Amino acid sequence: MLSGIALCSAIFGAAMLALLRNGCPARQRDWFAVAIMAAVSGALLGMAIEAMFLDSFGTDGWIREGVLLAIGVSVPLFSAYALMSGQKIPAFGELLGSTDCGPLSLLSILLGILLGVTTVMACITALGLVFDPRCRDFPFAPMTMAAISLFALRTSRTSHDALPMSEMLFAVLLGSSAIYIVFNEGFENWQSLWTCAAYALLGATLLRGTELKVQSSLIDVSSLALETAPQTSSQTRLGV
């Protein structure tokens, strides 16, 4: 209980620190998003710590549960700070330098790494529940803490220049795995339903940056058609 209160206070403290450094007034919906991050993370931190000690069998189990707990704690903190400082989550293409987006700030690089690690851990646990579900636990607590924070930040600060291919592939993988797990485990397993909802929310977070890209592509195609139409008509008149 005390650990959850401490994490909740730390999330609000990170948001206040970013607000003081930024110097700009925050929007009301940004504070609402920070409140959701803090409430969810503080309520689920105890479950995540308990899962790390009870569900860790062997070295690989301790590493997996430790990484999940680290994700669940660090993602809300950095997301709250980035939300109040106006930073966005870079796409995987921007993080790897495959797009002409310019240099990224240190905070943006950390956010991209956290998104990547969260996505990889979600895919590992989801595929494990699909192909070998025996004696596997559902990481509903840390995945929920990370997914809600990333979704709130991605909704507020959408990436405009990202190539969505890798994000779409991961989102399809998480969505299809969540559907299979739900029907395989049954609707009576509340941990399965909760975990699959976290996977779906993370998939929606990955797809969130593709909307403006699709819209901008449609605008470019329509403008190109409008530019070429007068040229085609003038050439036709000259030919006649």
General description of the model:
- By secondary structure, this protein is mainly alpha-helical.
- It has one domain.
- 80% of the residues lie in helices and 0% in strands.
- The chain has nine helices and no strands.
- Helix 2 (28-54) packs antiparallel against helix 6 (140-156) and helix 3 (58-85) runs parallel beside helix 6 (140-156).
- It is globular and about 50 Å long.
- Residues 159-163, 210-225 and 232-238 have low confidence and may be disordered.
Low-confidence stretches: 159-163, 210-225, 232-238
The tally of beta strands, per DSSP, is 0
Radius of gyration: 21 Å
Question: In the residues, how many domains can be counted?
Answer: 1
In short:
The chain has 240 residues and is mainly α. It has helices at residues 2-22, 28-54, 58-85, 92-96, 106-131, 140-156, 165-185, 190-207, 211-239. The radius of gyration is 21 Å and the shape is globular.
